[in-house]
Amino acid sequence: MVTRFPTTIGLLVSLTILVSCTSVHKQEPPVKQQSVAPESILTTTKLRKLPALNETDTIPLTNQVREFKLEAKEARWQLVSGVETNAYTFNGTVPGPTIRAKEGDIIRVILKNSLTEETSIHWHGLHVPNLMDGVPSFTQHAIKPGETFTYEFLANHAGTYMYHSHFNSIEQIDKGLYGLLVIDPQNPGELKHDKEYTMMFGGWNIPNQAGGQTKQGQNDSMSGMSKGSALGIKKKGDIRSLMEHGMEDKKSTPDPHAGMNMPSESPDNKPGSTVMEMDYNYWTINGKSFPDTSPIEVKYGEIVRIRLANISNGIHPMHLHGHDFRIIAKDGHPLTTPQVVNTVTVNPGETYDIDFIADNPGQWLFHCHELHHTTNADVEPGV
Ligand SMILES: [Cu+2]
């Protein structure tokens, strides 16, 4: 039995464990629901009985060096069919290649800067020596165009982390200069997962689309795609205008923050992000917007782990249909008592590891419940 979890978004993915369909897959024939013992789907007994992740106390060195070559360079990147942009990439992709090692390994990253501006890499969440922290003018010089810099540090704690530019960070990160950093434990403990997925959330400002800004001198070709035309999707509802209206109301009432120059006063500011002054109009999971996000396909009964990492400046309450899941680690640290939930809010800079048992057959969504984020250029995918 196959279970696909459509991932969408904007921030949306599909998960299939076979039962009924959303509009995304309505061309498929209806699937007969498998008869399942009620206790296996109406309770979280099995899920709660799963062990926790192991915590790391001390690790012997492995004497292994894991070497990675990264090149920061510009590349065209397709967010979704018909929508391309000039991205900043590591090795031509967004996110860049996942850097993965085992606790006790030495990680060596040789970074070549082929951009036309300076850059650096910060290892987000891992405790590295100060000189390896990647913060220009504090711990190293900014890496100039054409220069190469080598980072080297110990993989000292299992977990889900990120790496990203720490030079001109808002612009370089929002253009795609980031990737996932995963450290595997030396002692994995009792908890075993049948499948593992990773999801890195990004936000984009694509000019000349609804909600997108065109800065002076910026000319980003959209390959002829008009708003929503490639997706065949319905117009968005009133939520955005309600939100705008609400914001205007606030301004007409006495403002306790008067004099603080709140960013909502900016004429350029538009809603669409949970963080003011960000003007994202596309949201991506692993560099892709729905419907080009990759579905999750799992078999009935499999235990599935998903590593979530938010490098965008938006807040993403990720919600799974049809199942509860456990939060088993936050920012790389195992929870001794995993929390059972159906939604986890992933703030900017945070990572979460979650797991669930695929025991409710069907096609289910896993999506951001900040519903502005399930849109592409203000157009809802129609889920
Ligand atoms: Cu979101």
Automatic annotation (TrEMBL):
Record's compositionally biased regions (Polar residues): 210-226
InterPro entries referenced in this protein's UniProt entry, alphabetically: Cu-oxidase-like_N (IPR011707), Cu-oxidase_C (IPR011706), Cu-oxidase_fam (IPR045087), Cupredoxin (IPR008972)
Region annotated Disordered, chain positions: 210-230, 245-273
Keywords: Copper, Metal-binding, Oxidoreductase, Signal
Amino acid composition bias (Basic and acidic residues), ranges on this chain: 245-254
Domain Plastocyanin-like: residue ranges: 73-187, 277-376
Signal peptide from the UniProt entry: 1-26
CDD domains referenced in this protein's UniProt entry, alphabetically: CuRO_1_2dMco_1, CuRO_D2_2dMcoN_like
Pfam families, sorted: Cu-oxidase_2 (PF07731), Cu-oxidase_3 (PF07732)
Matches recorded under Gene3D superfamilies: Cupredoxins - blue copper proteins (2.60.40.420)
Name of the featured protein: Multicopper oxidase family protein
Species of origin: Paenibacillus alginolyticus
